[in-house]
Amino acid sequence: MKISRLFASIAILGSASLALTACDPPMPPEVAAAIAEQTYTCVEGNATVSSPALMSDIVLGWADSLTYSCVDDPGTTEIIEQPNMTLSVADSTTKSVDAEISEYPASCKPIQSVPLAAEAGVLVYMESDLSSFSVSPKNLAGILNGTITNWSQLASDNPGTDIPNLPLKVFPTADTMALNSITGYLSAQGQKVSTPVFTAVDKPSVDLYAALEEGQVAIVPNSYAVYLGLYPAAIYLGMDKDTESPILATPDLAGIYAASTQWKLMKDSNSITLTLDPSIKPEPAPGFDIAPPPYQAIYPVNYYTCKSSDLLVNAIGRFILRLDSQGSLGASNYAQVPEYIRIESLLMISKGLPTPTPTPTE
User: Fold this and answer.
1) What percent of the chain shows pLDDT beyond 70?
2) Is residue 179 domain-shared with residue 214, that is, in the same domain?
3) What letter would DSSP give residue 271?
4) Which end of the chain is more exposed for a tag (fewer CB within 10 A), N or C?
């Protein structure tokens, strides 16, 4: 295991807690999480992991990080009996994997399941006359039901903006998870979608949406929109009486993060599930003082372990849930989950892994 120089302070904290009682209590979650942040736990072997197509670059980055984090290098004094742990990224020819990263239910029968990132369903649009565009929950349901067929019908959702009097066309194929997240959000808003004009397809190719027609809208995962540079519609929630400006829930990182802080976490012995609770006050993203209106059509991307024969997949999961690994999500097509969720995921995936011990200090 690779032990951080910062581990000494964690060791002191753990020793102090033991000194207060004659028994050997369980390690407090915050101490266990701190240890997990400051150390690597490496298990000998190579794990093959599948992931969404637009996350492959991130997973390749994690795999590259492992090549210099979990290596047996006797010449490096910070590494003690370090086994070689590597990660291979699955492709379309891979028949079986050791772990899956997916917003969909696992293809394997998962042993463990923990949230890794946040995704959102968004309505994207191609209308050259509009530099920005928003739609109310009621009219978003109308688009899905097929009762909104002209852009001019959405004028009330875009105060101060000239909306063209042109046909509104839909791209018929919608990602299943993205569509479900939007219909679920609309249902919570009291807006029923009876017969969607979109056809749900699991994991449609991102290339389908690379050239939307003028006047067309589509429903895609936010990661597709970011990758392709498509324009996502904000959700129009009314006018602010004080500022006389529109209140918009925008599917950017701040809006998605604010909604993700409204997730209620439920766990059993092997899995963590998340349920949105709009009554929870949203929190701002790290580095911001105020949370924007939360964009609530969100869903988690999970890490599933598929094999229980050894702890290799748990150690891989622990590595990619550490804060320094998660930092790569902030510059990607995906949003990070809030810290309280990440820590719970980190602790669950670490179950069964050896607890790091401090190196002797002088």
Assistant:
1) 83
2) yes
3) B
4) C
CB 78 within 8 Å of CB 39: no
- How many residues in total does the chain contain? 362
- In the chain, DSSP assigns E strands to 2-3, 39-40, 45-50, 85-89, 99-102, 112-126, 134-135, 169-170, 173-175, 199-201, 216-221, 231-232, 234-239, 246-249, 263-267, 272-276, 298-305
In tens, the pLDDT along 62-115 reads: 999 888 888 765 555 554 556 889 999 998 888 889 999 999 999 999 999 999
**φ, ψ for residue 207, nearest 5 deg:** -65, -20
For residue 39, tell me if it sits in a domain.
yes
Q: Are 94 and 48 in contact (CB under 8 A)?
A: yes
Specify if 219 maps to a domain.
yes
User: Count of domains in the chain?
Assistant: 3
SS3 136: coil
Which class for 200: exposed (0-12), middle (13-18), buried (19 or more C-beta within 10 A)? middle
pLDDT of residue 360: 45
Residue entry with tokens 């791209």 = 171
3-state secondary structure 147-191: CCCEHHHHHHHCCCCCCCCCECEECCEEEHHHHHHHHHHHHHCCC
User: Looking at residue 305, which CATH number applies to its domain?
Assistant: 3.40.190.10
Structure tokens at 257: 């993060």
For residue 141, being part of any structural domain is answered with yes
Give how far Cα 279 sits from Cα of 284, 294, 296, Å: 16, 12, 12
The model carries a pTM of 0.86
Between β-strands 216-221 and 169-170, what pairing exists: parallel, antiparallel or unpaired? parallel
